[in-house]
Amino acid sequence: MIIETIVFYVLAVVTVAAGVMVIASRNPVQSVLFLILAFFNASGLFVLLGAEFLAMILIIVYVGAVAVLFLFVVMMLDINFSELRAGFLQYLPIGAIVGIILLAELILVFATGAVDIHVPEVVAVAMPAPDEVSNTRALGNILYTRYAYLFQGAGFILLVAMIGAIVLTHRQRVDVRRQKIADQVARDPKAAITLKDVKPGEEGSWKSD
Amino acid sequence: MAESNFWVDYILPLLLIVGYIAAIILPLLLIVALVTYGERKIWAAMQYRKGPNVVGPFGLFQPLADGLKMMLKETIIPAGANRVLFILAPMILFTLGLIGWAVIPFNSVMVLADINVGILYLFAVSSLGVYGIIIAGWASNSKYGFLGAMRSAAQMVSYEVSIGFVLVTVLLAAGSLNLRDIVEAQKGLWFFIPLAPMFVIYFISALAETNRTPFDLPEAEGELVGGYQVEYSSMTWVLFMLGEYANIVLLSGLCVVLFLGGWLPPFHVEPFTWIPDVVWFLAKTAFVIFVFTWVKATLPRYRYDQLMRLGWKVFLPASLAWVVITAGAMHLFGWMPQ
Questions:
Q1: What's the pLDDT at B1?
Q2: Coil, strand, or helix at residue A121?
Q3: In this complex, do A179 and B120 lie within 8 Å of one another by their Cβ atoms?
């Protein structure tokens, strides 16, 4: 138990510290790398909770795919740091107002007791015993039965977003020569190659016509 | 009492796990060294040459000589490089090549971490490999390195998608995410027969995932003079090489686990069952590594647009369709594993 506690605090501290570094570090590439570190530690926290499926999915989806694209884009950007810092004071009031509003809302929610922040002694969730069913199976059971429509709905929203992104960015250029693999494969050697019998002394007949 | 519990509960298992890790990694590094030697011998044989034959009997100590040579070279860090990330990148790649082995079952009992989500763990590890390369390319502050890193990132992300669908079909057929259960599910029939198209897609995607010929555009020595490795020398470069080969061995091992029946003998009859199951696993892995080598000796490099076309327009629809077909057939005929 003591080891688990130590591991929890290490993971939690590193997560928060990495989160702070995401907004504190000057170089955007380093920000993304700190974000990845934060994802890693969050997935470690999931493992501690016994939610190994979520931990792996977090790494595969966020670290393996999303963050790679972040890094990709940030590395390609030509960022002028002095220009970025010049706008800091200009945007500070707006940022401060947004932050204060969010903080006030959070305080209101917790102060009025709308959310019970104390962990209940007995967790009354329809959760199978960990020894009987792996949490992948448990998650699947609940997602595909009780929440099937919501799950499908989420899927549809993602599909629409994906098609929208493709429609917005895809442009068909007509003046470009493209390789058509099907045409190349379908080409008939008999039609593509002609054999000509060239007589000695005859001129020009070897040239393609 | 609490103190004695502490020793028995924590320190003893810790020492045991460290022992297991050493027992996996030391032979693995030896195998990686042998693979580099075997590869050069195989290429040599395919090109009517002799290959390494000077150091030791049949040139067997060539990898050691190479390692010694690399160790004696100077470590060069470019002036404009990001020093921390520059050193970190090869370490990431090397570590990722090793940690995947934690969940690979060598036989029905020999596995370090028998976790429920073994296949997802391996998928996560293989999807992280891109960071080593992309960080290396960016940190070395060189245009060739950066171009190589960009190519590699796009390539690995593309082929991961089809590998993901291949894994989905396999776990549909096996009914488990645990690698040991997946091998046990192949007792009757190895998966490369019913899932033959997926086997082919997995193998080709594994080539792309490890940046091997015909997909070695990230290092393309003809145009990018080595790509992301261009600024690396000495031990940092050795770590890249070791990581790359450890990754090849890992994906070959995963191929054996997913499609070639892991440690199971091909027939459960007398002469085959005499051979220990670990030997079967290693022999199959060696065969898959040989095919990797064979491909590299045979095929030229792909053009970049062809590579992207193959990944997105051929493999992605094909693997997606096969997932639907597999799931539909299993549901229709009641083959769903319980």
A1: 46
A2: coil
A3: no
